[in-house]
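haha ok so turns out i had the wrong file open the whole time. this is the CORRECT one, sorry everyone. sequence first:
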Amino acid sequence: MQTLPDRADVVIVGAGIAGTASAWYLAQRGLSVVVCEKGRVAGEQSSRNWGFVRQQGRDPAEIPLMMESNRIWRTLERDLNADLEWTVGGNFVCFQSEEDRASFTRWRGIAQQHGLQSRIVEPSEMQQIVPDSQLGKLGGIYTESDGHAEPAKVTVALQRAADGRGATFLTDCAVFGVETSGGSVSGVETEHGTIRAKTVVLASGAWTSRMLAHLGLTFPQVWITGSVARTTAAPPISKAATWAGVAFRQRRDGTLNIATRSADHDLTIESLLFGRAFLDDFRKHGRDLRLRFGRASLALALGRYSKAALRRELTRYRTLDPAPNHRQLDDVLARLKQAIPATRDVKLSDAWAGYIDMTPDMLPVLDHLDQPSGLVVASGFSGHGFGMGPIVGRLVSEIIADGQPSLDLHAFRFSRFAEDGPLTSDTVI
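then structure:
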């Protein structure tokens, strides 16, 4: 680990895609930036997700952010001087029911109001997007301007670029707490000492709720486990990132990353504390969620209740590495082979899982808090954060350097959790 700096303009907690993108943009502004990561860069969900970079199906509040993020993605390989496996092949969702068609048709009307073009694909046209496939008979929706990239490459490329601009990355350096003085941020306490800073960015993913709790702040956040697999190489299938009961995208080497919307939830104390806030989301998506309980559930819940327990958990779980659901992934592979005959000979070559930090309305927090002032939260991306990473980094830099963002972030305010009224999700994926 590098020498711990005494102070910085900004300390970022978490070296996932949101934290590294924020560091890159802030360093370009000439600010001194230190990124503290308890494990390694992109060790958790930022390198474990599907790799879809989609505007399609987003909550209406996210559409303007994703449209701007899409523009950033289109030049990101050049800007970072790195191979990100960026592919503009569109995002294609095959309808599984007439209810899907109705929901996406309504969503398409909202997207058009923002200037985002998506089209309903009739069954006779599906072969144009995914040739020689058997994806169903109900048609789908296609957003041609969407793309996909390789998560294992993107965040480390952002880290290298930020490092080249003068940002400091401290790995194996857990932040135990945000320090305050007179109602304002004064720095962070790390396992190796204190770093003074007037601004701290919490881009700490699944750990954010626990860290905010020790500041007296309630952030309803639960963890779900998503499993992903990679297959051996197949013949060219499609450049589109596709969801057809099974989600898949084909990499440049012919291998496919495959997954499903179904996920596991390890029951923790948070499940009980925040359960009421998640009732609406559970009613909508409960059929895709499998509840389970185990030793890890109890151990990871303990960090909420004392600073000492949180310290132990942060250093014990340097990299959260949950076991993938192999039964689920075997089923996904079988569905893939049924839908895409060209994949009949592929096998699973790798499998992994990651913890996704969910909020009740499936929207992140992207906000500069009033109490304590100087604290910026960029967390709770609910499985949608990879594609948003670049614009999140830019917006965080604008919040800090300019005092206000260039896009409307009202829907992502932290205070919404304390306001009257239910929190509902408007995402259709």
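The two ends are 40 Å apart (CA to CA).
again sry for the mixup
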